[in-house]
Amino acid sequence: MTAPGSESAAHQAARPATPPRRVRISIAALRATWAWRARPRRSDPRRIVRRAAERLHLRVARDGDTVWSAYGVPLADRGTDETFVLCVLGTYGYRLADLLREQAEGVVLLDIGANVGLYSLIASRSGAQAVHAFEPDPDTTTLLERNLMDVATARIHPVALSDSPGLTALHRVPGHSGRSSLEPAAVGSSDSSIPVTAVDGSYLDANVEVSPGCRVVVKIDVEGHELDVLRAIRRWSDWTAVA
What we know:
Elements lengths: L8 H6 L6 H18 L6 H17 E2 L2 E3 L5 E3 L5 H8 L5 H9 L4 E5 L5 H8 L4 E5 L3 H11 L5 E4 L2 E2 L4 E7 L11 H4 L4 E8 L1 H7 L8 E5 L5 H9 L9
Parallel strand pairs: 4-5, 4-10, 5-6, 7-9
Antiparallel strand pairs: 1-2, 2-3, 8-9
């Protein structure tokens, strides 16, 4: 009978050997070394070619103070703002753009977090009955107004949709307008915040008209505040029309 706390020699021999500590450290160091070698480098030829192609595309696409995006709509030039560059180059992909082109006819679009209005423009050009673009950042709203100025079916709402109405802070990331958020944690070490007005579902009741039988399509891009937006829409009297 084996005394408590002791193990037989055979049982000990059957246990898998634990790699020496120095071996584990060597494996970790090797992985770190390969990760460091695989990192993107400024001198990487692929990176250089990609950056050159982006600059060439932006230069060719410019027409005065307007830039033609890869999505086929013109946008007011915003220089090197990273979100603007992504819109111009088509980096966001084409799934949503194609969906709007195929199904936007006759619908009401709520573009929550519209930025400069890329998807509002695509929907309006695809036959949307009405487009409501929500963008609380005043600097971005100025460009949004320029982009939608000739769209008779579009209406701009310079407010943030949320489930807590009132004055709140919009946290911004310099040089990347699309990362602005009402959630400070989503922005990180942002050093720029401005006061904006937040509205809830009652604002939609007063400002968004939906004809009987009309479908509503909602696009939301608000950097971590999506659940609050959905709660606000859920309190909207026409929320059942959302496709």
